[in-house]
Specification:
The protein has five helices and five strands. It is an alpha+beta fold. A five-stranded mixed β-sheet has the order 1-2-5-3-4.
Protein backbone atom coordinates (compact mmCIF):
# COMPACT_ATOMS: atom_id res chain seq x y z
CA UNK A 1 0.00 0.00 0.00
CA UNK A 2 2.81 2.41 0.81
CA UNK A 3 4.43 1.75 -2.59
CA UNK A 4 1.23 2.79 -4.36
CA UNK A 5 1.02 6.01 -2.36
CA UNK A 6 4.65 6.81 -3.03
CA UNK A 7 4.24 6.29 -6.76
CA UNK A 8 1.02 8.37 -6.73
CA UNK A 9 2.86 11.17 -4.91
CA UNK A 10 5.69 10.90 -7.40
CA UNK A 11 3.23 11.13 -10.30
CA UNK A 12 1.53 14.12 -8.73
CA UNK A 13 4.87 15.84 -8.26
CA UNK A 14 5.93 15.07 -11.82
CA UNK A 15 2.75 16.49 -13.33
CA UNK A 16 3.30 19.68 -11.35
CA UNK A 17 6.82 19.96 -12.73
CA UNK A 18 5.63 19.24 -16.27
CA UNK A 19 2.86 21.82 -15.96
CA UNK A 20 5.36 24.40 -14.68
CA UNK A 21 7.70 23.64 -17.57
CA UNK A 22 4.87 24.06 -20.10
CA UNK A 23 3.78 27.43 -18.70
CA UNK A 24 7.34 28.71 -18.24
CA UNK A 25 8.52 28.52 -21.85
CA UNK A 26 6.01 27.74 -24.57
CA UNK A 27 7.77 26.63 -27.74
CA UNK A 28 6.92 29.02 -30.58
CA UNK A 29 6.22 27.54 -33.99
CA UNK A 30 7.34 29.24 -37.23
CA UNK A 31 4.49 30.87 -39.18
CA UNK A 32 4.88 30.48 -42.93
CA UNK A 33 2.41 30.49 -45.82
CA UNK A 34 2.14 27.93 -48.66
CA UNK A 35 4.99 29.64 -50.54
CA UNK A 36 7.36 29.46 -47.54
CA UNK A 37 7.08 33.18 -46.71
CA UNK A 38 6.45 34.93 -43.41
CA UNK A 39 4.28 38.05 -43.33
CA UNK A 40 4.24 40.92 -40.85
CA UNK A 41 3.04 44.50 -40.63
CA UNK A 42 5.38 47.26 -39.52
CA UNK A 43 4.36 50.75 -38.42
CA UNK A 44 6.21 54.02 -37.73
CA UNK A 45 4.68 57.52 -37.50
CA UNK A 46 1.95 57.50 -40.18
CA UNK A 47 3.62 54.87 -42.38
CA UNK A 48 2.43 51.26 -42.63
CA UNK A 49 4.54 48.55 -44.26
CA UNK A 50 3.34 45.10 -45.31
CA UNK A 51 6.40 42.83 -45.39
CA UNK A 52 6.95 39.31 -46.75
CA UNK A 53 10.29 37.52 -46.25
CA UNK A 54 11.51 34.26 -47.77
CA UNK A 55 14.92 32.59 -48.09
CA UNK A 56 16.92 34.09 -50.93
CA UNK A 57 19.92 36.18 -51.93
CA UNK A 58 19.17 39.31 -49.90
CA UNK A 59 17.14 41.30 -52.45
CA UNK A 60 14.90 43.94 -50.93
CA UNK A 61 12.00 45.27 -53.02
CA UNK A 62 9.91 48.22 -51.81
CA UNK A 63 6.75 49.11 -53.77
CA UNK A 64 8.11 47.31 -56.84
CA UNK A 65 11.49 49.12 -56.78
CA UNK A 66 14.87 47.97 -55.48
CA UNK A 67 15.69 49.31 -52.00
CA UNK A 68 18.66 51.49 -53.12
CA UNK A 69 16.37 53.21 -55.65
CA UNK A 70 13.41 53.72 -53.28
CA UNK A 71 15.50 54.65 -50.21
CA UNK A 72 18.23 56.78 -51.83
CA UNK A 73 19.79 58.00 -48.56
CA UNK A 74 22.39 55.60 -47.11
CA UNK A 75 21.00 56.10 -43.58
CA UNK A 76 17.61 54.75 -44.64
CA UNK A 77 19.18 51.74 -46.38
CA UNK A 78 21.22 51.04 -43.25
CA UNK A 79 18.04 51.28 -41.16
CA UNK A 80 16.19 48.58 -43.09
CA UNK A 81 19.14 46.13 -43.01
CA UNK A 82 19.72 46.41 -39.24
CA UNK A 83 17.49 43.45 -38.23
CA UNK A 84 19.42 41.12 -40.56
CA UNK A 85 22.79 42.32 -39.26
CA UNK A 86 21.78 41.92 -35.61
CA UNK A 87 20.34 38.45 -36.27
CA UNK A 88 23.38 37.48 -38.40
CA UNK A 89 21.13 36.70 -41.39
CA UNK A 90 22.45 39.28 -43.86
CA UNK A 91 21.86 38.34 -47.54
CA UNK A 92 19.95 35.19 -46.56
CA UNK A 93 16.38 36.47 -47.06
CA UNK A 94 14.54 38.20 -49.89
CA UNK A 95 12.16 40.95 -48.77
CA UNK A 96 9.11 42.16 -50.67
CA UNK A 97 7.17 45.00 -49.08
CA UNK A 98 4.59 47.66 -49.82
CA UNK A 99 4.62 50.90 -47.85
CA UNK A 100 1.97 53.62 -47.67
CA UNK A 101 1.71 56.86 -45.71
CA UNK A 102 4.19 59.17 -44.05
CA UNK A 103 7.55 60.28 -45.41
CA UNK A 104 10.64 58.32 -46.36
CA UNK A 105 12.06 58.26 -42.82
CA UNK A 106 8.83 56.92 -41.34
CA UNK A 107 8.51 54.41 -44.16
CA UNK A 108 12.05 53.12 -43.55
CA UNK A 109 11.23 52.71 -39.85
CA UNK A 110 8.03 50.87 -40.75
CA UNK A 111 9.91 48.52 -43.09
CA UNK A 112 12.49 47.82 -40.35
CA UNK A 113 9.71 47.03 -37.87
CA UNK A 114 7.98 44.77 -40.40
CA UNK A 115 11.19 42.93 -41.30
CA UNK A 116 11.94 42.35 -37.62
CA UNK A 117 8.49 40.95 -36.93
CA UNK A 118 8.52 38.76 -40.05
CA UNK A 119 12.01 37.46 -39.22
CA UNK A 120 10.83 36.58 -35.72
CA UNK A 121 7.84 34.72 -37.16
CA UNK A 122 10.06 32.86 -39.64
CA UNK A 123 12.65 31.88 -36.99
CA UNK A 124 11.14 32.14 -33.48
CA UNK A 125 14.58 31.61 -31.89
CA UNK A 126 15.59 35.12 -33.06
CA UNK A 127 12.92 36.79 -30.91
CA UNK A 128 15.25 37.39 -27.95
CA UNK A 129 17.98 39.00 -30.05
CA UNK A 130 15.56 41.26 -31.92
CA UNK A 131 13.69 42.20 -28.73
CA UNK A 132 16.86 43.20 -26.89
CA UNK A 133 17.91 45.31 -29.88
CA UNK A 134 14.51 47.07 -29.68
CA UNK A 135 13.34 46.18 -33.20
CA UNK A 136 10.09 44.46 -32.16
CA UNK A 137 8.80 47.50 -30.26
CA UNK A 138 6.61 49.83 -32.28
CA UNK A 139 7.93 53.39 -31.98
CA UNK A 140 4.77 55.19 -30.89
CA UNK A 141 6.04 58.76 -31.32
CA UNK A 142 3.73 60.74 -33.60
CA UNK A 143 3.51 64.35 -34.72
CA UNK A 144 1.49 66.37 -32.23
CA UNK A 145 -1.75 67.77 -33.62
CA UNK A 146 -2.37 71.48 -34.11
CA UNK A 147 -4.59 73.11 -31.48
CA UNK A 148 -7.09 75.87 -32.14
CA UNK A 149 -5.93 79.32 -31.03
CA UNK A 150 -2.34 78.36 -31.78
CA UNK A 151 -0.16 78.87 -34.87
CA UNK A 152 1.11 75.27 -34.71
CA UNK A 153 0.88 72.51 -32.11
CA UNK A 154 2.36 74.68 -29.34
CA UNK A 155 3.57 77.89 -30.93
CA UNK A 156 1.43 80.91 -30.11
CA UNK A 157 0.73 83.82 -32.44
CA UNK A 158 3.05 86.80 -32.03
CA UNK A 159 2.01 88.92 -29.04
CA UNK A 160 1.68 92.65 -29.57
CA UNK A 161 1.25 94.91 -26.55
CA UNK A 162 0.40 97.98 -28.70
Amino acid sequence: MSEATNSFADLKGMTGVAAAAETAAPKREPKRDALGRSYATGRRKNAVARVWIKPGKGEITVNGKKAPVYFARPVLRMLITQPFLVADRYNQFDVMCTVVGGGLSGQAGAVRHGISRALQLYEPDLRGILKVAGFLTRDSRMVERKKYGKAKARRSFQFSKR
